[in-house]
Design brief:
nine-stranded mixed beta sheet; Ntn_hydrolases_N; autocatalytic cleavage; alpha+beta; 8 helices; binds asparagine; EC 3.5.1.1; four-stranded antiparallel beta sheet
């Protein structure tokens, strides 16, 4: 245990196509708030798990992101959400899939991690567990935004079938963190892809695809075309490259490049190493992200822009 680690948090708001100018400001505000909330948890002595859960909760509650309120709609016009979380200290992990009518799937995933002997609950079983844990249900309408009703209509009109292009399926959210004690964690949460089949589960709740955390290596959260991410186990594949001695950037470029060349799958990753280095990489057109370390807040949306400001 190293009591002197400088805490780090990195958050993402999903691999995406180019984001319109007016949405950009709302997205930027959400991503910066999430990073700052997560960083505050860390600087006040909170754990990496607390920080990633806190940051992802902010993004689930923000209607611009495809997670919690703001989730994309499935082919029936319903919200079915996936989420997972992992503690790099002991590899404990929790995940939920196809959950409905709760505000914060990431909190339910954490309860699975901490209150059950399992690591993954789905659909009705997850709902039953949520009720047993006192997680309140909310009306479906609270998760559905006007924008997502229009997106589903457009998608059905254009294709008539679920679309697998991650450029359109923006907005999944995730966070990775390193706390003062040297523990790493990740959290990822999503509504999935628009017009998906009922019961479709993506990469986000699958440990090793939607993310991974191991104190001996680091932590990663992924976004992008879920079926491609699942097929290459993007999160674990990337951390494996880090274990082999690659830098975070090299590892990310290698695994994202592999996914693109094998499957034409696009996506993005955020990483923190056990030493406190961090990286953000993506092959989609854009990926909103922010990172906080040493009192500085770094952020960006498109490849060509990165800004750095002092944290308050
Ligand atoms: N935008 C995303 O990251 C979507 C998510 N990976 C999924 O396929 O469910």
């Amino acid at each position: 245990m190293n009591p002197d680690m400088n805490p780090v948090i990195v958050v993402h708001g999903g691999g995406a196509s180019k984001i319109s100018k007016d949405r950009k400001e709302r997205v930027r505000q959400g991503i910066l708030e999430a990073a700052q909330v997560g960083y505050r948890i860390l600087t006040e002595g909170g754990s990496a798990v607390d920080a990633v859960e806190g940051a992802v909760t902010i993004l689930e509650d923000h209607p611009e992101f495809n997670a919690g309120c703001g989730s994309v709609l499935n082919a029936n016009g319903d919200v079915e959400m996936d989420a997972s979380i992992m503690n790099g200290k002991d590899l404990s992990a929790g995940a939920v899939s196809a959950v409905r009518c709760i505000a914060n799937p990431i909190k339910l995933a954490r309860l699975v991690m901490e209150k059950t002997t399992h690591c993954f609950l789905t659909d009705q079983g997850a709902a039953k567990f949520a009720a047993a844990m006192g997680v309140p249900t909310i009306p479906k309408e609270q998760l559905v935004t006007e924008r997502n009703i229009k997106r589903l209509e457009k998608e059905k009109h254009e294709k008539g079938a679920p679309n697998s292009d991650c450029q359109k399926n923006l907005g999944t959210v995730g966070a990775v963190a390193l706390d003062r004690k040297g523990n790493v964690a990740y959290a990822t949460s999503t509504g999935g892809i628009v017009n998906k089949m009922v019961g479709r589960v993506g990469d986000t709740p699958c440990i090793g695809s939607g993310g991974y955390a191991d104190n001996d290596i680091g932590a990663i959260s992924t976004t992008g075309h879920g079926e491609s991410i699942l097929k290459v186990n993007l999160a674990r594949l990337t951390l494996f490259q880090v274990e082999q001695g690659k830098t975070l950037e090299e590892a990310a470029d290698m695994s994202l490049g592999y996914m693109k060349s094998k499957l034409k799958g696009l996506g993005g990753v955020i990483l923190v190493s056990k030493a406190g280095d961090w990286a953000v990489r993506w092959t989609s057109a854009s990926m909103p992200w922010a990172a906080a370390k040493d009192g500085k807040l770094h952020s960006g949306i498109d490849l060509e822009e990165t800004s750095v400001t002092d944290l308050p």
